[in-house]
Please model this.
Amino acid sequence: MVGAALAGFSKRLTPSLAIAKLVSVNVISKANLFDAARATENPQLVEKAARWYELATKNDFGNFIELQGVFPSVDWVGGKLVFNLGSYRLICGVSFLRKTIFFKALLSHAAYDQGGWKS
Model:
């Protein structure tokens, strides 16, 4: 009798699990990210930012390891995510619980190396 009840529970649970997997990450702010990319006057960077945005918003990252599965070169530096976009570094905050990535800065290697973004 318990087995039959659990089987019914399992069938009811499955659709909600499928819906949970449809959740994606929100990036704040898309406009600021693309404004920063366009300000570099580097069309390749704009394309890389667009690709990064597409991948970031079409996935559901529950933790840093899952994020690394999609972005293998991402680093965790000073409590922030650092993505490599060619000759630029994309700096972001993150809340895995809220499924949100917060755009902080898009910096050249030289500006990144100065470390002012860490504060």
The two ends are 60 Å apart (CA to CA). The beta strands are 26-28, 75-77, 80-85, 88-95, 100-108. Residues 24-118 form a domain with the YaeB-like fold fold (CATH 3.30.2310.20).
